[in-house]
Each structure stands twice: as C-alpha cells, then as structure tokens.
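lol ok so funny story. i was supposed to be doing the assay writeup but got distracted and ended up predicting the structure for this chain instead. priorities right. anyway since i did it might as well share w the group, maybe its usefull for someone
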Amino acid sequence: MNTPLITPDGFPRSDIDVAQVRITRARIIRLKNDLKAVMSRIETALYEHHARLKERGSISAGGSDFERKPEHVGIAFAVVNTVDQRSPAHEAGLIKGDKIIKFGPINAGNHQRLARLATVVQENENSPIEITVIREIDEAQARAEVNLVLTPRQGWGGRGLIGCHILPL
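and the output, tada:
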C-alpha cells in the first residue's frame, strides 16, 4: 500500500502493473471505509439494544444477560459409573449412580460431551471443585440433591486425578 509506483526519476515502474496496483489499492481503501461504517452501525445498535434492556429491567445497571439464572440448572448431564477406593472422588463422597448436575462451572448446557469436565479437573489440580449430584436414597425412588467438594490430585494410588469414571447421560 505504501510502496511508490514511480521510479526516483518520476517514471512509472516497469516491474509492476501500475494500473492494476492502483485499482487494487482503491478497492482496499473502499473496503476499509465500508468496514468502519459497518462497525460504527453495530456499535450504535448495541448501545441502543442494551439501553432498551436496561429500561425494561431485563438487566441490572452494571449487569448483563449472563447474570440471569441458566435454564439448565438442575438437569443431570452425567452419571458416575465407578469410583475407586481411596481416590479423591471416594473421599469427596461420590458413589456409583450419582447423577451430576453441576461440576464446578459446568452444567447440562455447557459440558460439551464431558470435554469441559476433563479440562476443569486438570485446571483445578489440588484445588477444590464444588459438585452437585442427584442421589437415589432408597428403592422407593426418593432422590436428594447432594453438594460435595472434590479436590483432584496426583499420587493417590490410582489412575487419573479424581479416581472415578463418568459417563454422559
């Protein structure tokens, strides 16, 4: 864009197609101007949208749409298949058959086929993770929501950081 199109003597350069370069430069400048105009319109529309939401009370003055209660709260997305003895999962109180509804920041709407669960476990090695499970209490199908704290760690005597196998629902 900034390379001169003429020689030091003032003649057009013979190693490039000067006409094509000028046409291409004009096109690039036009596209940059169009992008600026579109971004300006988007910015204005976003300000207006958030002002309307604020007026309706959909969001708080300093908040956002993400502060609303997620619609996936309370829905189980995984089940504990096995729990190794003396593992961090066993020490936390997880048992086979527990249905996981919350695993740290993960819920039914954002677990991505349990891929995020593995990421959260790795990122929180030696740090507690709050877990909420639905547990069958007796044969009469009574259920209870149980809050647990799991601390993933190496060297507990088995494979993995938590010592349990979790399957998606």
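The domain at 78-168 is CATH 2.30.42.10 (Pdz3 Domain). Residues 18-56 form the longest helix (39 residues).
back to the writeup now i swear
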